[in-house]
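In full, the data.
>
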Amino acid sequence: MYIDSHCHLDFPELAANINDVLAAMRSNEVGYGLCISVTLPDFPKVLALASAHDNLFATVGVHPDYELEIEPTVDDLVRLAQHPKVVGIGETGLDYYRLTGDLEWQRLRFRTHIRAAIQTGKPLIIHTRSAAADTIRIMQEEGAHRAGGVMHCFTESWEVAEQAIAQGFYISFSGIVTFKNALTLKEVAQKVPLDRMLIETDSPYLAPVPFRGKTNQPAYVKHVAEEIARLRSIAPEQVGEATSANFFELFKAAQPCK
């Protein structure tokens, strides 16, 4: 079995065909998906999807790319995270690639999410792009290790992965690891211990080879596992078993289907 630890099923590309998306998951041995929140106004759609399907879970948070969205407070996030289908806090973090100028608001928002995760005891889903040093620094300053979490769609160096793992975080690989020119990331995928690894699609984005350039979906997470298995000279099923066990170890509020 495989688990897509990060997908956006409420986005229109996937929401319009949700039954087909779920059927494709079943056909490709993808047992569960984690639906990620990126804004508070859209959170009800994320929660509704998770609530309607036993094999879907949700998070609550505001993505660092959304500058003009409603700014969450710690109390907001803690309150919304009380729903039993909400298993994590995020997507949160820092992104210095898409936005420029004074980004202190991003750093403050990130701190808010870390504090909410610590209060709720639910792990963080961290996005970092062109901001690794500040991301690791704020994690350390806020004691993010008390909540734990995952560095999602990881594209950084092994040194950054080591620093995150030292704080109790998991490293999640997306379809990028299948791209021919992602040589540094392929090396990281060989080094991350299997018991600290997750896999994801970040769908509808970043479809893995052989679907690169097309709309991504959770069913394709199997191809991420296959590439990691190839790099490590192990069976894809071993990657699937390890990352699925890791998912439920990290997201303790997620209950497997009976």
Q: What stands out?
A: The mean pLDDT is 97. The longest strand covers residues 86-95.
